[in-house]
Amino acid sequence: MMNIKQCIRIALLCAFLSGVGYVNAQDLLKKNDLSQVKADQLSDAEIAKFSQQLQSSGLTIEQAEQIALAKGMPATEINKLKQRLQTPGTTSGSVKSTSNNGSADRSANSSEFTAKKEDGKPVDTRIFGSELFSNATLSFEPNLKIATPMNYELGVDDQIQIVVYGVQETSMDITISPEGVANIPNVGQVKLLGLTIEAATQRIKQAMSSTVYPTLRSGTSKLSVSLSRIRSIRVTIIGSSRPGNYTLSSLSTVFNALYACGGPADFGSYREIELIRNNKVDRKVDLYHFLINGDQSDNVRLKDNDVIRIPVYKKRVELKGQVKRQGIFELLPGETFDTLLQYASGFTDTAYRASVKVTQLTSREKSVKDIEAAEYASYIPQTGDLFVVAKLLSRFANRVNITGAVFRQGYFELTAGMSVADLIRKADGLKEDAYVARAQLVRLKEDLTKELLPFDVKLALNNDPAHNLKLKREDEVIVTSVFDLRDEYKITIQGEIRAPGEYMFIDSLSLKDLVILAGGLTDAAQPKRVEVARLLKRDTLTAQDERASEIFEIITGDDLSAASHNMQLKPFDVVTIRRKPGYMLLQSVNVGGQVQYPGPYVMSARSEKVSDLVQRAGGFTPEAYLAASYIKRFNSEMDKDIKREKVNKIQTNMKDTTKAVLTDIDRSFDQIPLNMEYIMAHPGSTEDLVLKPGDELVVPKFDAQVRISGSVLVPTQIPFDRSYNVRDYLSAAGGTSDYARRGKIYVLYPNGKAATTKHFLGFRNFPKVMPGAEVVVPKKREKKGLSTGETIGIASALASLAGVVIAVVNLSK
């Protein structure tokens, strides 16, 4: 086939002949100026027309190039033509060429064999075999790098390499002339046309050894003949996706040509492709031999002027469903459904193989036929048949099930005459906890509803016909465990035990055994006093009896060796181990800030107070600011939960959903202000708080600043001035903003206390300010305007009220 380079050269001559692209090409032979040629003005149809005219003009490509350049055709326009002609669809037909001189170098690329479908109708991928010609990752180019085939027949334009080595040495490339001879220097002409490489080697050796290469006759020199450049052949393909004349390598085969033309068209046959040589059908190619068995016996080498004819198919059927390869298959006369199954690689594992449904086409309508398995080898499909292989039913023909107190639960095979006892034995028998007095057989009735058939397991195993029931498909036998028929017996131990909690009750379990199971007593446990609470039998109580449990107080010695600790426990007993009176673990508090020895301190007494802790810490440093002292008391999760529950109840009663209170509850600690000067002057007073484990006493450093924050123009800090009051500090911050709530101004003192503004007869009495304090100006709440609906509602209510008033006035008259 004509390659891109040839097409470009043809297009150059086209441009030369076309001038500006609107005059007949033959009329442009007289034009002298091609400088105004515009490649963009040439359509694909015009280029195709000019290409055909050039082929009939008799001009060579070299002559066309020289004329175009001599006439002043711009190089930029030449490049544009090259780019356009490299796009598929700009050449006439599907013609390709492998070289300028009609032959191909053996290292040439294989782009002509790249899988590529023309724009248009896509390939129906359901057709079996179409993937060979639609998969871009496949390439059926001939291998030009293999050793020269010894059966290759030489033809015109083949270039052979003749190498003599040994005593005499030479190497030459000879091209076979149109007369079919090779002109070998100093030897003469040797006719090689139609000879194989093997025969040609012998003829060349004979000619050369009888002239200037006598050492070839004696064997002191050797001769090697191989192909260095192969010729091109022209093959015509009809009935393909891209029919036309193709110029291919002389090494190309039938499969190479089929791939180059895109394979059979949509209605083309894959099984009766004809190779016509010398006007006779030389071979019929069946692609299924290659697709099914990998057999390439039909993949013969092509010759010049061969014709490949792809006829339309005669019979196609479609196979769907539970087969390994679904698709549309072509069948030859005499092939059966069994053959079709082989092409589809057979049934899948889940296929229903007893019969296959086929939809047939009649002269007026469709019909359905069932093909039984016995007919697979004899049924001849008709063209257009659609076969559907169904899937196996999702049910079992011979399955029974057993669950419960047997050693092997699950499904078993239902055999002829199988009974309940047989199934129990297949399940390796009953477990020791099996309830043998009664078991259940659940059976599916004919309408698929279930019925329950009870039986005695012991009698069934003794082959009692009334209880050893015969099984049917999908029967389920349920053997109950005795543990399923009673509550789960547990026992509880709590208090000063290492692993408190619930434990499974065991017969003959004693108090001492339970303590050991729970890891033993803690150091705080009081073994002399153990309490056991036991559930009362309700059948012995009357309605007026208010007792909830029976309590046993066990008073023993200091260890568990006493006989009372061998008390036998009963299910649901609750054992409580008490704590020793006065037992307390060592717990610490912290001191931070301006004390002599800050850090953690172990509490010396349960009632240790702030003054005691300060004394242990060595007193205060000179920089201590006693008025700012406070205690950080950390909240446990239990405390938070209790407070949160109380607040939720209050908010529910008050219909208050504010989140501010809940946020305060979630704080990790509370800040308790202290009057430290009074505490140190009056130790043991009510101001001298009792410390709790985990408390932290904080004595800050003296701070002479006063902060002003909130709704002021410039929040800031300024030095404390004894002569200043709240108004003076607000003025120092630029005054309050328009959104300030002046009546709610408060002062936050450094120890955590707060004092708010007081009102009396319209006068405001602001709190006193001290060093380290903060003056806070709250912000007014944003007023939410009435919505349109609210405005309409109020207006309607007022109108209704006005109407009522008018009616009352009129009545009073």
UniProtKB/TrEMBL annotation:
Q: Which residues cross the membrane?
A: 792-811
Q: Where is this region: Disordered?
A: 83-120
- Output the Pfam families linked to this UniProt entry: Poly_export (PF02563), SLBB (PF10531)
Q: Which organism is it from?
A: Filimonas lacunae
Report domain Soluble ligand binding positions: 242-280, 317-363, 400-444, 490-538, 589-635
Q: Which spans does this entry mark as compositional bias, Polar residues?
A: 84-113
What keywords appear on the UniProt entry?
A: Membrane, Signal, Transmembrane, Transmembrane helix
Secretion signal span: 1-25
Residue ranges constituting the Polysaccharide export protein N-terminal domain according to the UniProt record: 149-210
Q: Which GO terms describe its molecular function?
A: polysaccharide transmembrane transporter activity
What name is this protein filed under? Answer: Protein involved in polysaccharide export, contains SLBB domain of the beta-grasp fold
